[in-house]
Amino acid sequence: MRRLLLALPFALLPLAAAQASDHEHEHDHAEHGSLDAHEHGAARLNVVLDGQALELELESPAMNLVGFEHAATSDADKAKVAAARSQLQGPQALFGLGAGACTLSETELESALFEDDEHEEHHNHDEDSEHSEIHAHYQLDCKKPGELKQLNLSELFKRFPATEKIQVQLIGPSGQQGVELTPAKPSLGF
C-alpha cells in the first residue's frame, strides 16, 4: 500500500500542475506555484482506497493544528501539542469515515513538536526552524469498502479552525481526482 501512496503524487501531477497554474495568479506569494510551499491555513491530504485498504496522509503547517510553530516550552503550548496529537489519533472522526466498517491498523504522527513533547531532554536541531510541519499517516482496513461513499473533512475543519483549505488528491474506485476542500465545501466522493 505504501507504494500506492508514494505513486499518488506522480499519478496526479498533471492534474495538480494544471490546478496550480490556474491559481498561480491568485497566489503570487506562493513559491512559483510550488505544491510544497509552506502556507499557513493550507494543508494537503493524499488518500488511496485500494480494495479493503484505505491509506491517508495529512501534511500541515503546525500553525494550522496547534496555533504556533516554535518548540513548545510553556505549559500552555505543551497542552496544545498534546491536544492536537490526541485528536489526530482518531482519523475516522476527522475524515468522516463512519461507513465501510474501517478499523485503524497503523498510525504515524511526525513533527518536531511531537519529538520535543516526548523527549524534552533531547535537543532537536529543528527547534529554531521557522516552519514546523505535522505529518499524519494512517492505514485502515475496511471490511465494507463499497459503503465508503465520501470523505468528509467538516470535523477536521471544526477541530482545527486555522485550517482554511485542504488540497486533496484521491485515488479510489472512481479513479483519481484532485480538489480543494474548505469549511464551506468539506466533502469529496470516493
From TrEMBL:
Composition bias type Basic and acidic residues, residue spans: 120-134
Signal peptide range in chain numbering: 1-20
UniProt xrefs under Pfam families: ZrgA
InterPro entries registered for this protein in UniProt: ZrgA-like
Alphabetical UniProt keywords: Signal
Segments for region (Disordered): 114-134
Protein name according to UniProt: Zinc-binding protein
Source organism (scientific name): Pseudomonas borbori
